[in-house]
Structure formats: C-alpha cells, structure tokens
Amino acid sequence: MTKEEKKAYDREYRVRNKEKIKVKEKTYYIKNKEIKIAYAKRYNADNVEKIKEHKKKWYIENREEKLAYSKEYYIENIEKIKEYKKTYQAEHSEEIKAYGNNYYIENKEKLDAQKRKYYVEHLEESKARGKKYRVEHEEEVKAYNKKYNAEHKEEIKAYSKKYRVEHKDRIEKFYAENKERLKLKEIEKRKTNLTYNISCRISCSIRKTLKDKGGRHWEDIVGYTVEELICRLGSTIPIGYTWSDYLEGKLHLDHKRPISSFSFTSTDNPDFYECWGLDNLQLLTAHDNVSKNDSYAKPYQLGLAV
Q1: What is the CA radius of gyration of the chain?
Q2: Interhelix angle for 63-76 vs 78-91, to 10°?
Q3: Is the pLDDT reported for residue 304 higher than 80?
Q4: For the chain, is the Cβ count within 10 Å smaller at the N or the C terminus?
Q5: What is the pTM of this model?
Q6: DSSP-assigned beta bridge partners for residue 255
Q7: Could you tell me if residue 25 is inside a domain?
Q8: In a domain, 113, yes or no
Q9: Residue 51 lies in a domain
Q10: What's the domain count of the chain?
C-alpha cells in the first residue's frame, strides 16, 4: 500500500468510525490527561519551528476539508462557541487589547491597504453601516472624537496641512462641483448646531480683527474653550429667550465694549485679550444690539482727594 493509499484508507476509516474513535480518544485522554499535557508541553517547547512548518504544510494540503469541517462544527456548536469566546474575552481583555495593538503596529501598512480595498469594494454598504452606527451611538462617538482630537491635536493639524497640500487640485474640484450643496449644508449646520455656530462666529470675528492668526485655532488664541464660552453666554441670555432664539438670529453675540474701541493688530497687544475676554462677551436681542451699534459709555475715574 502506497503512502497516498494509506492516507486515503485512514481518512475513510475515520469517517466510518467517527463516533467510535471519538469515544475511544476521549476515554484515553481522561485516563492519561496529566501525562499527555506534560508531554505535549515539553514536545511543543522543543519543536516550535517544526510544529509550525508541519501545521502550515498540513493546512495547505487539507484546506478544503478543514474549512468544511470548521464550518460544520461551528454550525453545530454555535452557542457553545459564543459562550466560550465571551468568557475568554472577559478573562483576558488586557492581553487581547495589547496583542491587537502590537499586531496593528507591526502590520499597519498591510492592514490599512486591506481596509482601503474593502471600503472601495463595499462603498455603499460601508457608508450605510457607518451612518447607522453614528446615529445609534451619537453621544459615544462625540465623546470619543473629542477625546481623540484633544490627545492628537498636533498630529491632526500636521496631517490636515499635508493632505491639503498634496490633494489641492482634488479638494478644489470637489468644492467647485458641490458648491451649492455644501453651502446649504453649512447653513443648516449653523442653524441646528450651537457649538459649531458659536465656534464659527468667534473664529470669523477674530480673523477680521487680526492681520494674521498664524494658523492657530481660536481656542488656542483666546485661552478658553467653546464649552466655557457657551457657559458664559448662557448666563447672559435675556429673560424670556433661549438658545433656539440665538440659532434663529433673534439673539446676537455682542461685545460689551465694542471691538472698534480697542486698538490692536496682533495677540501680543493686551487689548486683544481684554476685547475677547469672557467678561466682555454677552448675548443681546437683535434689536438692542443694532440700537447699541458701536456706542460705549466709557467709565471714568474719580479724582482722588489730596
């Protein structure tokens, strides 16, 4: 009997006597468990490369049978497998996380290429799945993005700058082809997103008062965050009004002491920080703000008795 014939016979025999062999192997294993485990550990430690090579060779030769068996086993034991995975992941969460991070670092280019390929081949499906996830986990996504942006501020800034330079023509083409759609989207976002609305207004106003922002975000320039600004402005909302009135244009962002009363062209001037300080900002009704215009009742200093 040749090697191939013997291999075929063994395979056929195992198929015919599957249950019998399973019972026999289980009985033997239970009886000799400690001996087998000790031997297996010793053998595996002494023959790492040999075992690895043998497994690889065997898998290549028996790939289709292995896949068919794995599929059949999974279907028959799906609940058992799920429960085992759940338990294992709970008990080894830190190890799994560390392994995943290390594997990604070592195989970053390969994994990124696979992701890009899959995304291109399943574009609509990926978009729909991403949109659904963002809607169902809106608060989690916001919290994660906020944390990530804060921890990777400089990296994001450098990457964005590099991307704009390398894809200048592509970006210009996209904006030219989608000008009206993007304009409507921007208007709608400013009407519904308070944080975005205030951030844009402050950024635009500061840009007008300075010769050069130096590419910095307005929060880095003024020394407070948009959340702190919203908190401050919220305390100045006139009685009977709400943030909805601000978004609808019934309330205006106002400087108690008008910008025109200051004299500065850069952030080096102390006047800049007085002008844009939280204490100098408030919300006024549209009517009151228009009536006020740039008028400012300057305080005077009382003469000191000699």
Answers
A1: 34
A2: 90
A3: no
A4: C
A5: 0.47
A6: 281
A7: yes
A8: no
A9: no
A10: 3
